[in-house]
Write a structure and sequence with these properties.
This protein is 31% helix and 12% strand. The protein starts with 14 loop residues before the first strand and ends with a helix.
């Protein structure tokens, strides 16, 4: 659908200006805004005709659009995801991670998986109310909900709209378990709610630490928390009694794989209780976006990185096959799996964790509270 079909109109006060930088698109992950795969028309400029070329912008504003979705909890039956239900308060993500496998989802709205994905954020303003309605329905069977499985629930928009916090408050009222995946230290803002959920074994937080190199993080994940802040988040959550693990997702072969030992050691010292990882996934237009990014930032390593990626993906840059799309296949993928497993054991990150509990779920918390 085109954006107009959703009748999203950005309010004037919903525009956050991006400061001007010396380099074009600095502060953004993608280097361009390619046409989505569902579009029938593509505008191509002649690079030799200076009269045709559009003027390059000095800055790219972030715009927020109201998303009028009628439901907020989605389900899947993928055999290699590890969860059935998820909640995404935001579509698109200002973090701008160049490797983000969610980028192609913006193409369903007539937008690009490039700069549009980072600058046109769809905000589900009714998410807390829709979640309450879902948990109160007769059809809801208590089960863990993932926040969010697609885009980061603690991206910059959350400071303004606080939808993730409001959804967590609803989950805490019902005592419905939740697992969180984030790269942002902002998750510590909600330690009060997370601690309440932890009392009923109803929460687990996964901090994504892809690199300890702050310089690399700035160009690979330009608007995420600095790596030391993510480690601090692990420490603060652990000290508050909130179960927390480290997620090295994704590992980029030839670029970040050598950091596996350092990341796991640092996470364990910060108080992480578990660890997991995924391998770089490049569905649809992500391939071209990632290749352009490598050419800009790591031209000398580009071929090495892409060749290793192909080695793990059956000769392609991406293979969506269930069972291997998260971890890859082949000798190099096996080496990563073996190293990760041994280092988890060395740092005490391989201890079994109890499954999130639905034992204390309350169908109608407001009615039950009224009894007191």
């Amino acid at each position: 659908m085109a954006l107009d079909d959703y009748t999203f109109q950005p309010d004037d006060d919903w525009v956050e200006e991006t400061p001007q930088h010396k380099r074009k698109l600095r502060g953004r992950g993608a280097l361009g805004n390619p046409t989505g795969r569902f579009e029938s028309v593509e505008v191509v400029y002649d690079p030799d005709d200076e009269w045709q070329l559009p003027e390059e912008p000095d800055r790219i504003p972030t715009q927020y659009y109201r998303d009028h979705s009628k439901s907020v909890v989605t389900t899947n039956d993928s055999p290699d995801v590890g969860f059935d239900a998820s909640l995404n308060p935001y579509r698109g993500c200002e973090h701008g991670c160049i490797y983000c496998y969610a980028r192609p989802t913006h193409e369903y709205f007539g937008l690009s998986g490039g700069i549009d994905f980072e600058t046109k954020i769809l905000v589900k303003t009714d998410a807390p109310q829709l979640l309450r309605k879902k948990l109160s329905s007769r059809s809801w069977q208590p089960q863990p909900i993932i926040l969010s499985g697609v885009t980061d629930p603690y991206q910059p928009a959350e400071r303004r709209f606080q939808l993730t916090r409001q959804c967590l408050e609803v989950l805490a009222e019902f005592r419905n378990p939740v697992a969180i995946i984030t790269k942002n230290h902002l998750v510590t803002r909600d330690i009060d709610v997370l601690s309440e959920l932890a009392r009923f074994n109803a929460v687990r937080v996964n901090l994504s630490v892809t690199t300890l190199d702050s310089r690399l993080a700035r160009i690979m994940e330009p608007r995420t928390a600095d790596p030391p802040l993510r480690l601090r988040a692990i420490r603060e959550l652990n000290q508050a009694g909130v179960p927390v693990s480290v997620m090295m997702g994704p590992i980029i072969p030839g670029l970040t794989d050598h950091e596996i030992p350092a990341v796991l050691k640092a996470a364990a010292e910060a108080g992480a209780q578990g660890a997991n990882y995924t391998i770089l996934r490049l569905p649809w237009g992500n391939k071209e976006l990632f290749e352009s990014w490598l050419e800009e930032h790591f031209p000398n390593r580009k071929d090495k990185i892409l060749n290793r990626q192909r080695h793990m993906r059956n000769g392609k840059l991406y293979d969506p096959k269930f069972g291997s799309r998260m971890r890859g296949e082949g000798e190099y993928a096996d080496q990563i799996a073996d190293i990760f497993k041994k280092l988890k054991k060395r740092h005490g990150l391989d201890k079994p964790t109890p499954p999130l509990s639905t034992e204390h779920f309350r169908k109608h918390p407001e009615q039950q509270l009224s009894l007191f």
